[in-house]
Design goal:
This protein has six helices and two strands. It is mainly α. Strands 1-2 form a two-stranded antiparallel ribbon. A hairpin with a 7-residue loop joins strand 1 and strand 2. The radius of gyration is 18 Å and the shape is elongated. The protein starts with a helix and ends with a helix. The relative contact order is 0.12.
Length: 138
């Protein structure tokens, strides 16, 4: 049995499910041009209150100029806004716009749908094994 071929086929199917979820989010939000990594950036911003460009750069493990470029792209997509710090006018925070919040909420909904689909398809033991295997490869 060619386990490598089986694994590739399974990963392709799993990827297709994920892409369908992403496509649905894109359709619902009207942002078909949003890239996979930009979805992740929005999730990071949503999960971190008072996120500064420096903090964002640390999380992403990239340079500040790279973060500046990311923020400009997300501002242009009307997903984030810069909010000046009241205590220190030189600093600013990266905040989600209403559209950015909708995208993150839709993304979480799609992830829950994917989890529900997996849950309906697998037994309790298979779910535990699936989670164990995913954790093992991270």
């Amino acid at each position: 049995m060619d386990y490598y071929a089986l694994l590739l086929r399974a990963l392709k199917q799993f990827d297709q499910h994920g892409r369908r979820c992403q496509d649905e989010v894109s359709r619902r939000t009207g942002l078909a041009e949003l890239k996979q990594n930009q979805f992740r950036y929005l999730e990071i911003i949503a999960e971190n209150d008072d996120l500064t460009p420096g903090g964002f750069a640390e999380i992403l493990r990239v340079t500040r100029p790279s973060v500046s470029e990311i923020v400009v792209q997300l501002v242009n997509l009307d997903c984030v806004r810069k909010q000046q710090c009241v205590r220190d006018g030189r600093r600013y925070y990266i905040r989600l716009t209403e559209r950015g919040q909708q995208i993150v909420s839709s993304r979480y909904l799609m992830q829950r749908r994917m989890a529900e689909r997996i849950r309906r398809s697998l037994t309790d033991e298979e779910v535990r094994e699936f989670v164990r295997l995913l954790e093992k490869i991270q």
